[in-house]
Every structure is written in structure tokens, then in C-alpha cells.
Specification:
76% helix, mainly alpha, single chain
């Protein structure tokens, strides 16, 4: 699921205007993305100039999703933080995103740290929604939509009967 979601996310970011992502698509095409990845990883982390919404809204949200994937799978707070740090640093910053840009110092810190705080809030909200028969404001549609936004991977796996299958 992560690979599929990552391919979609990379495609969406690649299709966005360069002014929004700061990704230099011509440099990616020039020598190939693997060459660009090596170049970006060697350059090391830098302070990026991304829009504040990317750095302080979408990155903490992504960190929260990583955190929730672990937390909803039975990891404790510390283990979920480590999972979020690993996924945001190695899977995304030094993995997928390094094909397009040099890893970012603030993303390496903000995504797992603020993301874990967001994720723990999501975790308590998810428990409350599940306790109320997956309803928000007496609506199952709002309940499932909220669960999908806060914990997309586990919500999708649960809808396919993953937890029941793994318990048996």
C-alpha cells in the first residue's frame, strides 16, 4: 500500500507546478532520476525554501499518518515515533523525494516530531470515533471519512478484513 501511495504522491507532486514543489524537472530528465538522486543524497540536508503550508501542515500530517500506521498496529508511542522518523527520513526524504530535491533539514525534524504529536492526537480521536460506532456527529459517513483522513492505511486494510484475517 505504501508503494502504491508513494507512486501516486510522487506523480501528483511531479505534475504540480515547479513553483509549488521547487522540483527541477528538467534536471531530473537531463541525466536521469537515479543520477539526480545520487547527486541530491550526496549534497546532504539543506534548509529548504518550500512554502510554509508544505513544511508546517503537509509534512506534520504525513508524519502523523506514518505514526498512525504504527500506533494503530499496536506499537507504543516511542516505537511509533521511531517508525515515523524512519519512514519520513529514509523512505521519503532520502528515498522518494531525493529523486527530485536535496533532503531538507526542517523536513527531517518537523515531519516525525510534529507528526508524532499530530498522530497521537489522531490516535485518541480514532479511539473515540471507534468507541462511538464509527460515527461523527451521528454520521457513519463523517466517521469513516475522518478515520480515512487520520489513518488511511489501517482504515483501508480494516475495510478489507485484514485485522480479522490476521487474528485467525
Amino acid at each position: 500500500m505504501y508503494v502504491g501511495a508513494t507512486i501516486i504522491a510522487f506523480g501528483v507532486l511531479y505534475a504540480m507546478p515547479e513553483s509549488a514543489t521547487n522540483w527541477d524537472r528538467s534536471a531530473m530528465k537531463e541525466n536521469g532520476i537515479t543520477y539526480k538522486w545520487k547527486q541530491n543524497v550526496k549534497a546532504g540536508p539543506v534548509w529548504d525554501n518550500d512554502d510554509w503550508v508544505l513544511n508546517y501542515v503537509t509534512h506534520p500530517y504525513s508524519g502523523g499518518v506514518y505514526y498512525m500506521t504504527a500506533r494503530s498496529s499496536g506499537f507504543n508511542i516511542f516505537e511509533s515515533f521511531l517508525y515515523s522518523a524512519f519512514m519520513s527520513s529514509f523512505f521519503w526524504e532520502y528515498g522518494i523525494e531525493a529523486f527530485a530535491e536535496i533532503p531538507s533539514k526542517q523536513d527531517l525534524i518537523i515531519t516525525p516530531v510534529l507528526g508524532s504529536m499530530v498522530g497521537e492526537g489522531f490516535f485518541f480521536a480514532k479511539k473515540t470515533i471507534v468507541r462511538h460506532d464509527r460515527k461523527v456527529l451521528n454520521s457513519k459517513v463523517l466517521g469513516y471519512t475522518s478515520l480515512l483522513i487520520m489513518d488511511p492505511f489501517n482504515t483501508l486494510l480494516d475495510s478489507f478484513g485484514y485485522k480479522e484475517a490476521s487474528k485467525t
